[in-house]
Design brief:
It is built from three helices and 14 strands. The chain is mainly beta. It has two domains: 97 residues, Elongation Factor Tu (Ef-tu), domain 3 (Beta Barrel), CATH 2.40.30; 65 residues, SH3 type barrels (Roll), CATH 2.30.30. The strands form three sheets. Strands 2-3-6-5-4-7 form a six-stranded antiparallel β-barrel. A six-stranded mixed β-sheet has the order 12-11-10-9-14-13. β11 and β12 form a beta hairpin. The longest helix has 5 residues. The protein starts with a strand and ends in a 26-residue tail after the last strand.
Length: 200
């Protein structure tokens, strides 16, 4: 998980996404991007909203009224969101919180820590991280392959299965990408094709 470096020199951490309205009293189901939801979603906690520019919530913050776990789902109530219609206006919003460097999340890094790191596969440097794209579903490491022209970029899903190791001090991330992500897949081996001159 990567934290986006926001405007005004603040570091902010992405901690959740509002998935859908829940019930009739303004609650929203929450997809968590934090290991400590009880500590993050306390009453009075304020979040910056990432929403489309056309949204009436663009550029605004929102304050937690209550956080619950209901039937195994994380559910949050916000101040001034009192009914389902108001809650539906926040669906798909991403929640960011000011993050003190002294209180790091587990497995969370800031964009500026990741940008410029070498990308290593099988002990070989295969590229360099040039930026991080934050999408609703997941973060992507944007990697410029080693020796490639300046235009080529590879989008690497920033998930533990593909990026198992982030070594800030060592200046590298280790990747275990699926075949074809960093190179063109070879054509199917000719010897595997059936022979046309086989005896009848």
């Amino acid at each position: 998980m990567a934290a986006k470096d926001r405007a005004q020199g603040r570091n902010q951490l992405r901690v959740g996404r509002l998935v859908k309205a829940h019930g009739l009293k303004g609650a929203l189901k929450l997809e968590l991007y934090t290991d400590n939801p009880e500590g993050r979603f306390v009453p009075g906690a304020e979040f910056t909203l990432q929403v489309p520019e056309a949204s009436p919530w663009h550029g605004k913050t929102i304050t937690v009224r209550e956080y619950r776990v209901m039937n195994g789902n994380s559910v949050v109530f916000f101040e001034d969101i009192d009914d389902r219609t108001a809650a539906e206006g926040l669906v798909r919003a991403i929640l960011w919180i000011d993050q003190d460097d002294a209180e790091p999340e587990d497995n969370a890094w800031y964009d500026h820590q990741l940008t410029g790191l070498d990308v290593v596969r099988d002990d070989q440097v295969v590229g360099r991280v040039v930026r991080i794209d934050h999408l609703p579903a997941q973060d992507l490491l944007i990697v410029r392959p080693a020796g490639a022209d300046a235009e080529r970029e590879i989008m690497v899903p920033f998930v533990e299965a593909i990026v198992p190791t982030v070594d800030i001090e060592g200046g590298r991330v280790v990747v275990t990408p699926p075949a074809g992500l960093f190179e063109e897949l070879p054509d199917a081996a000719v010897e595997d094709a059936p022979s046309d001159d086989a005896a009848p």
